[in-house]
Amino acid sequence: MTNISVKRSKGSSINRVLEIIELVSISERPLSPADLAISLDIPKPSIHRLLQQLEADGFVQTDWRGLIVPSGRLVKTAVGVLTSNTLESLRLSILQRLATEIGETCGIAIPHNLEMMYTDRVQSNWPLQIYLPIGANVPVWCTSSGKLYLSSLPKAQRQRLIKNMPLQAMTGNTLTEKHQLEASLSKIAESGVGIDNEEFIAGMVACSVPILNPDGQYFASLFTHAPTIRKSLTDLQAFVPQLQLAAQELSQLLVESCSFNEN
């Protein structure tokens, strides 16, 4: 089990609930109820009761192995803390500048289960738009942001995911053979740039770069996409330096957001 130091308290149920949420959030792997009971010094009957309540409220869920993982409400809470309104105007100003430089829609997507969720978006001014709104969920295996996320995972973990993932063909270009997807992800891991060559939506190309958290690890994908009648994938890739600069600025905002919430 990952060695995680969590301040233990024998106080109220609220303290115990918060400690469970904290440990589930920072653990490098899914935890069993027994892991949580031991780490937090909570009796097994109590840990099961608290987990049932947290699951009913949408903060955690039990995966197919019986392990505890964050659920939608906890993910949204974490994103809300790190992308709070305190820095929203600065975040959107970076995206607006980037969208103006590239001339295409730009946004941020975070991993959520086997999908990517759009959390921020600034559209281009062209009449022809590919509309994927904030809060939309898109597949990980055929989008530039999702493939970038998969490429950031340890190779063994990534291969296990691909092995069990239903690679549905979204277009004629979707990589539905597991060895093809793995080869593509290996190249993305080397380059640090996710690509979507009409794999998600026919007539749309996209590329993305990582936004890193304060620990220097992948947190989200900064993406741009365009219809192929305006830009080719090669055209978009020419803007990777601008994407990377904006991603560095957004990473710094995460650092500032964490510092703000700790004070």
Q: Could you please describe the fold and organization of this structure?
A:
With 263 residues, this protein is an alpha+beta fold. It folds into two domains: 13-75, Winged helix-like DNA-binding domain superfamily/Winged helix DNA-binding domain (Arc Repressor Mutant, subunit A), CATH 1.10.10; 84-260, GAF domain (Beta-Lactamase). It contains ten helices and eight strands. The protein has helices at residues 13-26, 33-40, 44-56, 72-82, 88-102, 144-152, 155-164, 178-191, 233-237, 240-262; strands at 60-62, 68-70, 105-112, 115-122, 137-139, 194-197, 204-212, 218-227. Strands 5-4-3-8-7-6 form a six-stranded antiparallel β-sheet, sandwiched between helices. Strands 1-2 form a two-stranded antiparallel ribbon. The longest helix is centred in the last third of the chain and has 23 residues, at 240-262. It is globular and about 60 Å long. It starts with 12 loop residues before the first helix and ends with a helix. Residues 73-256 form the IclR-ED domain. InterPro entries: ArsR-like_HTH, GAF-like_dom_sf, HTH_MetabolicPath_Reg, Tscrpt_reg_IclR_C, Tscrpt_reg_IclR_N, WH-like_DNA-bd_sf, WH_DNA-bd_sf. This is HTH-type transcriptional repressor AllR.
